[in-house]
Amino acid sequence: GAGVSQSPSNKVTEKGKDVELRCDPISGHTALYWYRQSLGQGLEFLIYFQGNSAPDKSGLPSDRFSAERTGGSVSTLTIQRTQQEDSAVYLCASSLTTSFSTGELFFGEGSRLTVL
Amino acid sequence: SQQGEEDPQALSIQEGENATMNCSYKTSINNLQWYRQNSGRGLVHLILIRSNEREKHSGRLRVTLDTSKKSSSLLITASRAADTASYFCATVDTGNQFYFGTGTSLTVIP
User: Fold this and answer.
1) Mean pLDDT, residues A26-32
2) Please, which residues have CB within 8 angstroms of residue B33's CB and are 6 or more apart in sequence?
3) Which residue of A52, B13, B40, B70 is 20 to 30 Å from A27, comparing CA positions?
4) CA distances from A90 to A38, B19, B65, B94 (A)
């Protein structure tokens, strides 16, 4: 596709359920980032994948959060045993960033998660 | 926190006026980028300024960077109603980690 694609665009779930959010980055982009944005707030960094390197997981708020990036392309963010405070918009971004230069981030439209 | 801070949090101006937003940060940077976010949408990149640059222009946008003061400003000249959005600065460190500020909400009144 032409841009970063995220699914689902909206997800309503009950407290305690697991959810999976998917991000399909721009083809050829080596870097992939996940951010969380609560209503009216800035972006909170969650996790960063760069090529085949070990991901930077330093932003994951708890062990209920995990993410994978298969084949250096599609990424899935999984939240286990969701809590109401997990309600937010989850944004994915990809970039041509390498170890030698930084590119701009291309964002998807986000997945809005509501935990009842 | 390494997150930057934008100032002001909200700004309301008349169409045709200039809008200035400021960003302060705490750590050393590789570059600084500005992004725009329309309500309910993802962020869109506007402009990148490297740590060895002091000023950059792109259309109606002018960005300055003062690394000694750890601050940047974004100027939008001759604003339009379509410029209404939230604007975020992002500092990028040598590890290619992006740290976003809290954003400035700009309203341009027609």
Assistant:
1) 91
2) A104, A105, B45, B46, B47, B48, B49, B89, B90, B92, B98
3) B40
4) 9, 29, 30, 25
Both tokens assigned to B10: 């909200």
Closest partner residue to B102 (CB to CB) among A33, A42, A110 is A42
- The Cα of A12 is separated from the nearest Cα of chain B by a number of Å equal to 17
pLDDT digits (tens, 9 = 90+) for B51-109: 999 999 999 999 999 999 999 999 999 999 999 999 999 999 888 889 998 899 999 99
How close A102 comes to chain B (CA, Å)?
6
Most A CBs within 10 Å: which of B98, B102, B104, B105, as the mutation test of the A interface? B98
Confidence class for position A40, pLDDT limits 50, 70, 90? confident
For residue B68, the one-letter residue type is S
- Report the C-alpha gap between B109 and B19 in whole angstroms: 12
State pLDDT tens for residues A73-96.
Answer: 999 999 999 999 999 999 999 998
Residues A97 and A29: their CA atoms lie apart, in Å, by: 8
Cα(B23)–Cα(B34) distance, integer angstroms:
10
Residue that is written with structure tokens 């992006």 in the block: B98
Q: If you write DSSP's letter for every residue of B37-105 in order, what string do you get?
A: E-TTS-EEEEEEEETT-SEEEETTEEEEEETTTTEEEEEE-S--GGG-EEEEEEEE-TT--EEE---EE
Specify the length of chain B in residues. Answer: 110
